[in-house]
Predict the structure.
Amino acid sequence: MTDSLLRKLRRHRLLPLIAAALMLIVALAIGGAVLLPGVLAAPAQPLPFEHSKHVAAGVQCIFCHPGVQTSAVAGLPSLNKCMGCHASVTPKDPKDQADVNKLISQWESRQPIRWVRVFEQPDFVQFNHRPHVAAGVACESCHGDVAKMGYAQPYNLNMGFCLNCHRKQAPEKVTKLISCETCHY
Protein backbone atom coordinates (compact mmCIF):
# COMPACT_ATOMS: atom_id res chain seq x y z
CA MET A 1 0.00 0.00 0.00
CA THR A 2 1.16 3.53 -0.63
CA ASP A 3 1.71 6.01 2.18
CA SER A 4 -1.17 8.24 1.06
CA LEU A 5 -3.58 5.29 1.03
CA LEU A 6 -2.46 4.24 4.53
CA ARG A 7 -2.98 7.82 5.81
CA LYS A 8 -6.49 7.87 4.33
CA LEU A 9 -7.33 4.52 5.91
CA ARG A 10 -6.03 5.66 9.33
CA ARG A 11 -7.94 8.93 9.07
CA HIS A 12 -11.18 7.12 8.34
CA ARG A 13 -10.40 4.49 11.00
CA LEU A 14 -10.68 1.70 8.46
CA LEU A 15 -7.19 0.27 9.00
CA PRO A 16 -7.99 -1.19 12.46
CA LEU A 17 -11.26 -2.60 11.13
CA ILE A 18 -9.56 -4.21 8.14
CA ALA A 19 -6.82 -5.64 10.39
CA ALA A 20 -9.43 -7.02 12.83
CA ALA A 21 -11.42 -8.57 9.96
CA LEU A 22 -8.30 -10.24 8.55
CA MET A 23 -7.35 -11.61 11.99
CA LEU A 24 -10.89 -12.95 12.44
CA ILE A 25 -10.79 -14.68 9.05
CA VAL A 26 -7.42 -16.29 9.87
CA ALA A 27 -8.64 -17.36 13.33
CA LEU A 28 -11.79 -18.93 11.87
CA ALA A 29 -9.80 -20.76 9.20
CA ILE A 30 -7.35 -22.15 11.76
CA GLY A 31 -10.11 -22.99 14.23
CA GLY A 32 -12.11 -24.77 11.55
CA ALA A 33 -9.10 -26.78 10.41
CA VAL A 34 -8.23 -27.80 13.99
CA LEU A 35 -11.69 -28.35 15.44
CA LEU A 36 -13.59 -29.68 12.45
CA PRO A 37 -11.18 -31.62 10.21
CA GLY A 38 -13.42 -34.69 10.10
CA VAL A 39 -16.51 -32.71 9.20
CA LEU A 40 -14.67 -30.97 6.40
CA ALA A 41 -13.08 -34.12 5.02
CA ALA A 42 -15.81 -36.76 5.30
CA PRO A 43 -16.45 -38.34 1.91
CA ALA A 44 -19.97 -38.56 0.53
CA GLN A 45 -21.40 -42.09 0.68
CA PRO A 46 -23.76 -43.75 -1.82
CA LEU A 47 -26.32 -44.41 0.94
CA PRO A 48 -26.88 -42.64 4.25
CA PHE A 49 -25.57 -44.72 7.16
CA GLU A 50 -25.54 -43.28 10.65
CA HIS A 51 -23.26 -45.26 12.94
CA SER A 52 -24.77 -43.69 16.06
CA LYS A 53 -28.25 -45.06 15.31
CA HIS A 54 -26.93 -48.56 14.64
CA VAL A 55 -24.79 -48.56 17.79
CA ALA A 56 -27.81 -47.33 19.80
CA ALA A 57 -29.77 -50.28 18.38
CA GLY A 58 -27.12 -52.65 19.76
CA VAL A 59 -25.17 -53.41 16.59
CA GLN A 60 -21.53 -54.19 17.43
CA CYS A 61 -18.68 -52.98 15.19
CA ILE A 62 -17.65 -56.53 14.22
CA PHE A 63 -21.12 -57.36 12.93
CA CYS A 64 -20.66 -55.01 9.97
CA HIS A 65 -16.85 -55.17 9.94
CA PRO A 66 -16.06 -58.87 10.58
CA GLY A 67 -12.66 -58.68 8.89
CA VAL A 68 -11.13 -57.17 12.02
CA GLN A 69 -10.94 -60.64 13.55
CA THR A 70 -9.60 -62.56 10.58
CA SER A 71 -7.76 -60.28 8.18
CA ALA A 72 -5.75 -57.11 7.80
CA VAL A 73 -8.77 -55.06 6.75
CA ALA A 74 -12.01 -54.55 8.66
CA GLY A 75 -14.10 -54.73 5.51
CA LEU A 76 -17.25 -52.87 4.63
CA PRO A 77 -20.76 -54.31 4.89
CA SER A 78 -22.34 -55.80 1.81
CA LEU A 79 -25.86 -55.09 0.66
CA ASN A 80 -26.81 -58.61 1.82
CA LYS A 81 -25.56 -57.76 5.33
CA CYS A 82 -27.65 -54.57 5.45
CA MET A 83 -30.76 -56.22 4.07
CA GLY A 84 -30.34 -59.11 6.51
CA CYS A 85 -31.65 -56.71 9.15
CA HIS A 86 -33.60 -54.15 7.17
CA ALA A 87 -35.79 -56.75 5.47
CA SER A 88 -37.59 -57.03 8.80
CA VAL A 89 -36.43 -54.12 11.00
CA THR A 90 -38.48 -50.93 11.05
CA PRO A 91 -36.59 -47.78 12.08
CA LYS A 92 -37.45 -46.37 15.52
CA ASP A 93 -37.73 -42.90 14.03
CA PRO A 94 -40.24 -42.83 11.12
CA LYS A 95 -38.14 -40.07 9.49
CA ASP A 96 -35.43 -42.70 8.89
CA GLN A 97 -37.71 -44.81 6.69
CA ALA A 98 -36.76 -42.71 3.64
CA ASP A 99 -33.12 -43.79 4.11
CA VAL A 100 -34.16 -47.43 4.48
CA ASN A 101 -36.22 -47.06 1.30
CA LYS A 102 -33.03 -45.98 -0.52
CA LEU A 103 -31.38 -49.16 0.74
CA ILE A 104 -34.32 -51.27 -0.46
CA SER A 105 -34.18 -49.59 -3.89
CA GLN A 106 -30.47 -50.42 -4.06
CA TRP A 107 -31.30 -54.04 -3.15
CA GLU A 108 -34.02 -54.24 -5.80
CA SER A 109 -31.63 -52.88 -8.45
CA ARG A 110 -29.24 -55.76 -7.61
CA GLN A 111 -26.34 -53.32 -7.61
CA PRO A 112 -23.74 -53.60 -4.83
CA ILE A 113 -23.15 -50.68 -2.49
CA ARG A 114 -19.95 -48.89 -3.43
CA TRP A 115 -19.00 -47.48 -0.02
CA VAL A 116 -16.30 -44.82 -0.04
CA ARG A 117 -13.47 -45.61 2.37
CA VAL A 118 -13.19 -43.15 5.23
CA PHE A 119 -9.93 -44.49 6.66
CA GLU A 120 -7.15 -44.93 4.12
CA GLN A 121 -3.57 -45.86 4.94
CA PRO A 122 -0.72 -44.94 2.58
CA ASP A 123 0.67 -47.81 0.49
CA PHE A 124 3.92 -47.82 2.47
CA VAL A 125 2.08 -48.64 5.72
CA GLN A 126 1.12 -52.23 6.47
CA PHE A 127 -1.64 -52.20 9.06
CA ASN A 128 -3.44 -55.26 10.37
CA HIS A 129 -6.53 -55.02 12.59
CA ARG A 130 -6.21 -58.58 13.89
CA PRO A 131 -3.34 -58.08 16.40
CA HIS A 132 -4.95 -54.89 17.68
CA VAL A 133 -8.29 -56.62 18.29
CA ALA A 134 -6.48 -59.59 19.88
CA ALA A 135 -4.68 -57.15 22.21
CA GLY A 136 -8.01 -55.71 23.30
CA VAL A 137 -7.66 -52.33 21.58
CA ALA A 138 -11.16 -50.86 21.40
CA CYS A 139 -12.30 -49.63 17.99
CA GLU A 140 -12.90 -46.11 19.32
CA SER A 141 -9.27 -45.87 20.43
CA CYS A 142 -8.28 -45.37 16.79
CA HIS A 143 -11.53 -44.44 15.05
CA GLY A 144 -12.96 -41.98 17.57
CA ASP A 145 -16.28 -42.30 19.35
CA VAL A 146 -18.23 -43.65 16.40
CA ALA A 147 -21.21 -44.27 18.70
CA LYS A 148 -21.66 -40.50 18.85
CA MET A 149 -20.98 -39.88 15.16
CA GLY A 150 -23.78 -39.68 12.69
CA TYR A 151 -21.65 -40.45 9.69
CA ALA A 152 -18.14 -41.87 10.03
CA GLN A 153 -15.50 -39.16 10.14
CA PRO A 154 -11.83 -39.41 9.29
CA TYR A 155 -9.67 -39.56 12.39
CA ASN A 156 -6.13 -38.31 12.73
CA LEU A 157 -4.39 -41.64 12.15
CA ASN A 158 -0.73 -41.04 11.43
CA MET A 159 2.64 -42.40 12.45
CA GLY A 160 2.84 -40.21 15.55
CA PHE A 161 -0.61 -41.36 16.68
CA CYS A 162 0.41 -45.02 16.36
CA LEU A 163 3.84 -44.58 17.96
CA ASN A 164 2.35 -42.74 20.96
CA CYS A 165 0.13 -45.73 21.64
CA HIS A 166 2.87 -48.29 20.95
CA ARG A 167 5.20 -46.54 23.41
CA LYS A 168 2.57 -46.92 26.17
CA GLN A 169 2.57 -50.73 25.94
CA ALA A 170 4.37 -53.16 28.23
CA PRO A 171 8.13 -52.39 28.32
CA GLU A 172 9.07 -55.80 26.90
CA LYS A 173 6.91 -55.11 23.81
CA VAL A 174 7.88 -51.48 23.11
CA THR A 175 11.12 -52.18 21.21
CA LYS A 176 9.31 -54.38 18.69
CA LEU A 177 6.26 -52.11 18.48
CA ILE A 178 8.26 -48.96 17.67
CA SER A 179 10.57 -50.74 15.20
CA CYS A 180 10.08 -49.45 11.65
CA GLU A 181 9.61 -53.01 10.35
CA THR A 182 6.49 -53.46 12.46
CA CYS A 183 4.44 -51.23 10.16
CA HIS A 184 6.69 -50.74 7.11
CA TYR A 185 7.41 -54.16 5.59
